Amino acid sequence: MTTVGTYAPQPGAAPLPRMIAAQAALETKMLLRNGEQLLLTVVIPTLLLVLFSSVDIVDTGKGRAVDFLTPGVLALAVMSTAFTGQAIATGFERRYGVLKRLAASPLPRWGLMTAKTASVLVTEVLQVLLLTVIAFALGWSPHGNPLTVLLLLVLGTAAFSGLGLLMAGTLKAEATLGAANLVFLLLLVGGGVIVPLDKFPQGAQDVLGLLPISALSDGLRAVLQHGTGTPWGDLGVLAVWAVAGLGAAGAFFRWE
């Protein structure tokens, strides 16, 4: 007579939500341990906020500079974490074979992307808290509905996360490194973060206004600086970028 064995833990894949949560926790730990990414995601936005709020370098229009700059720097923090930092880290994970090994696990491709986006959100919570404390110390006086701000940040994160994963999953690691940093610098200057969009020619304003960084910074500025209602136009632009970016990343992302 053959006795059926009892195995603990039971062999087989864990439930999908548990796999995604475990991968998100791992991604968050790796992100917070990476000194270069912390420089990009925390130190640079902080320095820009303090410098441009304290020194009259750029004409930000009427009102205090910190009230104009803080929403833009919050948008920059989202972009640096969800797009630039994530694209570079994922690109080199792909090069070194980390993603190839994950492909052999039960975690689906969309589950990995979900975990990476969740880790980005955790990091952004820390970023927003730090930048908010510094902005208040500089005399910032925000307005508007916090729920609208949260919606803008979440949609902005989804948009930039999709674009970052699309870049990391289709280009070589070295190309991703160069392209992600170049895009970061270009959008820092032309995305309404530090320099108001109305300083550009009208034709350029129309094009730049459709970029995700411009929609996020303008939407945050409309709510936090001017206390307006829900900026549906900016939310719409971010939603389109989020759907397009995540959809393209899901379709074209390669494990190796």
From TrEMBL:
Keyword presence, Magnesium: no
Protein name per Swiss-Prot or TrEMBL: ABC transporter
One Pfam family in the UniProt entry: ABC2_membrane_3
Keywords: Antibiotic resistance, Membrane, Transmembrane, Transmembrane helix
Keyword Membrane included in the entry's annotation: yes
Domain of life: Bacteria
Organism per entry: Streptomyces mangrovisoli
Gene Ontology annotations of biological process type: response to antibiotic
Molecular function, one GO term: ABC-type transporter activity
Compartments, record wording: Membrane
InterPro entries: ABC2_TM, ABC2_TM_bact-type, ABC_2_transport, Nod_factor_ABC_transporter
Topology term for the membrane: Multi-pass membrane protein
Domain ABC transmembrane type-2: 32-256
Positions of transmembrane segments: 38-57, 69-92, 118-141, 147-168, 175-197, 235-253
A GO CC term assigned to this protein in UniProt: ATP-binding cassette (ABC) transporter complex
